[in-house]
Design a protein that fits this description.
Number of strands: 8
CATH topology: TIM Barrel
Number of helices: 11
Strand order of the largest sheet: 1-2-3-4-5-6-7-8
CATH architecture: Alpha-Beta Barrel
Oligomer: single chain
Helix content: 40-55%
CATH superfamily: Metal-dependent hydrolases
């Protein structure tokens, strides 16, 4: 095994074929995870390429980080972008600054989403885990506006869904889903996976599928049709076993890929190729 530049987390052996990390946050600085040293995007991309993760979707989920993400991708051909106001940020903006400020932030996202490097609107959706009941309406309003934006610009809609399955599905179906929908870090059960698959929506799995307690998530993985399956890191969060508890990065995604392939009884090289092709259908070729 190789190691990162600071020697902190060993990299797994390279995958048998290239894959795409469909959801990451490059050089997002989380002091709990990284201390005072912000991660370096180019170092992370180089480490990822060495293990077969050759492209990433960089998610910028507030206005400043979305702007930074677009600028970063313009000079890095292995990076494409999703932009949004995250559901938790939507609630915070409304509570702190009011409805006009929330709409103004989404208007800025709409302008950024027109850039050629942007392939997705998201992550957007609902997160009821940290948001009080009275702010659910703000998240739902922002979600609907992001759906409209994805439809207008023909961008893939990337869903964040935490403790809000019923409302996410209801709003998607009432409002009308865009042509391409990805459930990022899918957290539902097998019944929800079947429901999404019947509508042609992609389901993306991250490190939690490797966690011992998540039997329901592995049952969901088992029922996803092959052509709707994606993989991601959500780095720097959700690090897969055996590195759980350490900062995540795209170069650690082979752990998740190999676990998923084993769970589905798939050959590693063929499974990597499937995931790569699915990502290109979901987000386009770049």
């Amino acid at each position: 095994m190789t190691k990162t530049a600071d020697g902190s987390v060993p990299a797994p052996a390279p995958l048998a074929a290239p894959v795409i990390d469909t959801h990451t946050h490059l050089n997002l600085h989380d002091r709990y995870l990284h201390g005072d040293a912000a991660p370096d995007a180019d170092e992370l991309l180089a480490l990822a390429a060495q293990v077969g993760v050759t492209k990433v979707i960089q998610i910028g989920c507030d206005v400043d980080y979305a702007r930074h993400s677009v600028e970063m991708a313009r000079t890095r051909p292995d990076v494409a972008v999703g932009v949004s106001v995250h559901p938790n940020d939507a609630a915070r903006i409304l509570e702190r600054d009011g409805a006009e400020a929330l709409d103004a932030a989404i208007d800025e996202i709409a302008e950024l989403a027109k850039d050629d490097v942007v392939r997705a609107v998201g992550e957007t959706g609902l997160d009821y885990y940290r948001t009080s009941d009275e702010l659910h309406a703000a998240q739902q309003h922002a979600f609907r506006r992001h759906i409209d934006l994805a439809q207008a610009l023909d961008r893939t809609l990337v869903i964040h869904d935490r403790d809000a399955h019923d409302d996410v599905l209801r709003i998607l179906e009432e409002h009308g889903a865009p042509q391409r929908v990805v459930f990022h870090c899918f957290s539902g059960d097998a019944a929800m996976a079947r429901h999404c698959a019947e509508r042609g929506w992609y389901l993306s799995f991250a490190g939690p599928v490797t966690y011992k307690a998540n039997d329901a998530l592995r049952e969901a993985l088992a029922v996803v049709p092959p052509h709707l399956l994606l993989v991601e890191t959500d780095a720097p969060y959700l690090t897969p076993v055996p590195e759980r508890g350490k900062p995540n990065a795209s170069y650690l995604m082979p752990h998740t890929v190999r676990f998923m392939a084993e769970q589905r009884g798939a050959d590693e090289a063929a499974f990597c190729t499937l995931l790569f092709e699915n990502a290109q259908r979901a987000f386009g070729v770049w």
